[in-house]
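Quick note —
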Amino acid sequence: MTYKTVLLHIDDSAGRAARIEAAASIAQACGGHLTGVALTGVSRLLYQNQPDLDADPNLSLHLNFLRERATHALDGFEAQVRAAGVASFEQRVLDDEAAGGISLLARYADLVVISQYNAKDKSPSVMRDFPAYVLLHSGRPVLIVPYAPPPLLAPPAAARNVLISWNASKEASRAVSAALPLLQRAGQVHVAIFDAQVHAAEHGEQPGTELTHYLARHGVEVRLHLLDGGGVRRGDIGEALLSQAADLSADLLVMGAYGHSRLRETILGGVTRTILQSMTIPVLMAH
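Predicted structure written out below.
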């Protein structure tokens, strides 16, 4: 397995360069194609209902402004990915709102790369629930890059220490499988299991053993950490997970994303919500 098509969301937020670097490192390492997409923020549904939007002079003026802003967000993309050694790439401006547009395009990609939401530096085209929406609706693994990564953090394709959060759920299983191209390149892979006795039926008699064997067959050796969550709330497990990542000097976290959507409302599990709010290293999630 590898990533032959990497989809990258681009906007004019401050985390753009770090996001491009992360996506470019993966595309270069995997010999994949990188597609950088900037969106205008105008929903495709509006075009479906009013196909002659550009015929209205006032609307046309506003649409042109939005397209120019999206085009400007792509400035420097080509130079940065060429410098990273990416052989195959393209950039696109798309008339759509960010969450829905990226989620649809993701169906034709192996991996999606986006940024953590930053309320202090938000893009006008990106809603607060953008990362959660893409996680729940894209049907693809999503790499989320922190908006303020540590300066010496290795790019995901060169991660030195990877931490897997394992609870034997189907979401965690999908995340581990999706992360294999990165796990196989990592220097060290750690598996953290909190309160294994809570999910004893899923973990089996020896928690983590089956996962260790599975990864070993893919050439990935792991160190297993059985941790006592002390019966804390699920959101606090997220904080404990981030603390464990810091203790291990991890530069990538792999985990399942938990939640559901009710119309446009996105309802996340406590651990997922905590990680999305407080992460300081890239997180690869799958739902």
